[in-house]
Automatic annotation (TrEMBL):
Cross-referenced Pfam families: AFG1_ATPase
Name this protein carries in UniProt: Cell division protein ZapE
NCBIfam families recorded: ZapE
Top-level taxonomic group: Bacteria
Region ranges (Disordered): 214-236
GO BP field: cell division
InterPro entries on file: ATPase_AFG1-like (IPR005654), P-loop_NTPase (IPR027417)
Keyword match Cell division: yes
Keywords of this entry: ATP-binding, Cell cycle, Cell division, Nucleotide-binding
Amino acid sequence: MPAAALTDRFPELGADELIASLVPPPRFGEARFSTYLPNPDEPSQAAAVEACSAFASRIGAAKAKKSRLRSLFGGGAAIPDGPMGLYLDGGFGVGKTHLLASTWHETPGPKAYGTFVELTHLVGALGFANAVSRLSEHRLLAIDEFELDDPGDTTLVSRLLQELTDAGVYVAATSNTLPDKLGEGRFAAEDFLREIQALSRRFGVVRVDGPDYRHRGLPDAPPPVSDDELEASAAAHEGSTVDDFGALTAHLGKLHPSRYGKLLDGVRRVHLKHVTPVPDQMVGLRLVALADRLYDRAIPVVVSGIPLPELFGEEMLNGGYRKKYLRAISRLTALARDAVTVPPAAR
């Protein structure tokens, strides 16, 4: 029986399902501050653990304070004793997502966790007022991969976070770009400087420095396999999918990136045949989103065609999305390495 194909799947997400899915992905379901291992050569990492832990404690204290005030006077948002936002800034592979998920786990509920693209899709699906109403019920909104890739997102997110923080919702976010630099190299950020500055004022910035932990002391990505080896791998591993790379990237264009996670439900290993260099930015950004969801779910990847480090051309790697493309290569490399070391599942 041939392996399943991702291109045969057309996942849908309802509004209630979108809200219910706002939790850390499987890779970070057990992430805690105690399981984060700071690099001893990078003191900012240990400092970031302390800052995130203090932020979570402050949310808990604000919740208790709000409860006491409500019992005395009724209503009222949380009274902040510092910025309502925490912003983890640093390169890829330094553990920012682990720290974000740990902050979420440490914070009392109700709380929500999602990627930036999932958040913007949620607003589109629910409508702005309904999204604000639903998210205002939470104590914490954690946003991974915070990026502003177009002016519409800038205005939307600025309004959203203003409404939420005014309602007493704390916000924690990760990004590879400082909040007052968001959008640079992608669109005319200076035209939206007021919105970007308004966002940055709501966050206390915590820097997380260091090299990419996924590749410290480890070999490079395994070389591409032959088509026959790829098919043999799919046959040997339960829950495998096999897709032509070009067909899959075309299929991704028919789905909103917020559906990519559900696209991978039940998948245990992904096989991509005839991988070629990414032709343009649109395909590149879709592939970045897919790589993030694969990594979130720790799904090994096997490829034939070109080596993974050659996915994005020099022009793309020197452009405004450089950090996203490098993160995708880093994560796909780790998943390709997993495919070599993870044994076949018992049948």
